[in-house]
Design a protein that fits this description.
Layout: H1 7-22, E1 34-35, E2 41-42, E3 45-46, H2 48-56, E4 61-65, E5 70-74, H3 83-89, H4 108-113, H5 118-132
Parallel strand pairs: 1-3
Antiparallel strand pairs: 2-3, 4-5
Helix pairs in contact: 1-2, 1-5
Amino acid sequence: MTLVLTNEQASLWVRWIHTLRLGHDPLNPGSEYRQGTDSLRCDGGYCCLGVACDLVDPDGWGYVDDGRDSFITFDGDQMEVPTRVRLAFGVDELETGWNGWTPGDRAISNLNDFGSSFPEIADIIEARLMTAVVR
């Protein structure tokens, strides 16, 4: 995978990596991200991909209650990274675009949901990003 990024997109990648490492957005010191699993955001926790969504638009979250279940969505999606977030990062697919780059060919969401910490995921993203970006 090769990425050609604008300065704004590259800055967003760096911000995401730092946010995952720190547990808060360095540009918003009052923010806090506790790791969650199984959806972009739930019960006060975030998937690493949910953190990416929040950095693009902290007001993009919604709440759905269909009478059986209730869940938090971003641009109407509970588990998928919405198009505008992918575009903000300069990729067609923020999730599956990383398949083949992660240990054991696991998608980033699988790393998140099955035991990798935010800092570990940040290290993987950073290492792969440095080899993918065309300057």
